[in-house]
Amino acid sequence: MHQLWPIVILGFVAFVTSFGAHVVAVNLPAYAAQVGVGVAMIGLLIAAYDAAEVVAKPLFGALADKRGMKQTMLAGIALFVLASLAYLVVNPRFLLLIRFLQGVGAAALSAVSLALVGTYAVEWRGRAYGVYNSIKGAGYVVSPIIGGAIVLKASFAMIFVAAAGVGVLAFGLSLLLPKPQGEVAAKVDDDDEGIGLSSLIGVFQQSSLWPWYVVTVVNMFFVGILFGFLPVRVYGLGYGPIINGLILTAVSASYLLIQPLAGALADRVHPGITIQAGLLLAGLCVILIPFATGALLLGLAILAGIGVGTVWTNTDAIISQQADSGRLGATMGVAGTFKEIGDMLGPLLIGVVSQAFGLAIGFVSCGVLGLLSVGLIARSKMMPRAV
Description:
This protein is mostly helical and about 375 residues long. The protein is built from 14 helices and no strands. It has helices at about 5-25, 30-35, 40-65, 70-85, 95-120, 125-155, 160-175, 195-205, 210-235, 240-270, 270-290, 295-320, 330-355, 360-380.
């Protein structure tokens, strides 16, 4: 009988970073009005959190391989909590530093919790990553509602108390986690300063992982266009904020709910096959979205969310499966960095293309990238071969 409770705890640990990122980001206009800064600073504050994760995830993953996963994850949660509480005692203009420190802590807890799933669920990674990502993704859904209510009833500063509270709960639950299977005390080599830099370099040199890293980036492009530019399409049709909210809620729900199901399916067949199916579905739907209206538009958006969710959870499963012995933390840290890169570059690239050639071309070009990725992984050595 598989033990699901460690995966649920790890999912809640990951919830800390999704909640912490968005509960602040969506309420930055209130901060800007309070302190007197412009939209450029809002963008910088959002980017600081992501930039910290891009740099720190591989480093903390490698450190976890050398020093222990659970200890590294707990340290990341502690840093996130302390950084959140620090906002209460510093000048509000130091928020940029607070956000960066939050991002560093989030990088540790996010990368290592992702790796730990692979150690607790060796034989059922797909289902486990599906549950993990669904719980994590819930943070993106509830944080705007909770954050808005806190600002309305209290103040912007109390958002950081809420973020710290979630972190404290995650820290306490993480203490209950069993020791990861197969984790041994690694010897520290003098030439890599105890961080595992040689292991990290080895991950980048593992050629079999690169097709899946590319897929990860492309899938984040899909996320960017669905949650960033689908509202632009809806607004252009004149449907109004209620319909816009309905469509985005439906996309979010489909994206979250499909992940445990897609993961369980990947445990029965090769995860690469489910990833191909997800890319094909998402790519075709994204290509068609700018030409659809009404119920067809809603249906295509939901199907695209299903495709994106399928790719998201099963790339985690297959990358963890391919990680070399002793390099799981570093491997998942690097995978997390590619997610962040896609998250940052996707909206920028699609925005530039749409500005230059129109929104429809932006959607179509993104969808075509997904279809090209199907061909890329079809040639991967890790895909099953017909006999």
